[in-house]
Specification:
Number of helices: 0
Number of strands: 11
Structural class: mainly beta
Order of helices and strands: EEEEEEEEEEE
Largest sheet: 11 strands, antiparallel
C-alpha cells in the first residue's frame, strides 16, 4: 500500500487502485457504512471512479439511501441507489448515462440468508 499526500487530502493505493476521501464506520463484514469513499481503478487504458455515499449495510443487506456511482470517460456514468428494503427484498434505482442519453430502471432483488440476489 502506498500513501499519497496532496495538501490536506490523503489517499491510499492498493494493488493499483486508489482510494480517497474514506470515511467508514465498520463493525464487521456484514455491518458497516461507507459514509463517503472514492475508488479510482484502471480500466481498458483509462480510469473509472467509483463513489460511495452513505453505503450502509446491515446484516449483509444495503440499506435505503445507500448510493454508489461509477464515472468513466466521456461523461459516461452509472449509479445505483437503494430506494427500499424489506426482510426479503431490496429495490434499487439504476441510472445509466452514455452518449448524452440517460435511462433509469427499477430493479427488485431477493434477499436470501443475508445475500442480495438479482435474477
Amino acid at each position: 500500500m502506498d500513501i499519497i499526500y496532496a495538501g490536506s487530502n490523503i489517499s491510499y493505493v492498493v494493488d493499483g487502485q486508489q482510494f480517497a476521501n474514506l470515511n467508514i464506520d465498520y463493525t464487521d463484514d456484514d455491518n458497516f457504512t461507507i459514509v463517503s469513499g472514492d475508488l479510482q481503478a484502471p480500466v481498458d487504458g483509462g480510469n473509472v471512479e467509483i463513489r460511495f455515499r452513505n453505503w450502509a449495510v446491515v446484516e449483509g443487506v444495503p440499506q435505503t439511501g445507500a448510493t454508489v456511482t461509477a464515472v468513466g470517460a466521456n461523461n459516461t456514468s452509472a449509479s445505483l441507489e437503494v430506494i427500499s428494503t424489506t426482510a426479503d427484498s431490496a429495490t434499487f434505482e439504476v441510472t445509466i448515462t452514455a452518449d448524452g442519453t440517460t435511462q433509469t430502471r427499477i430493479v427488485v432483488a431477493s434477499i436470501v440468508n443475508g445475500q442480495v440476489i438479482v435474477q
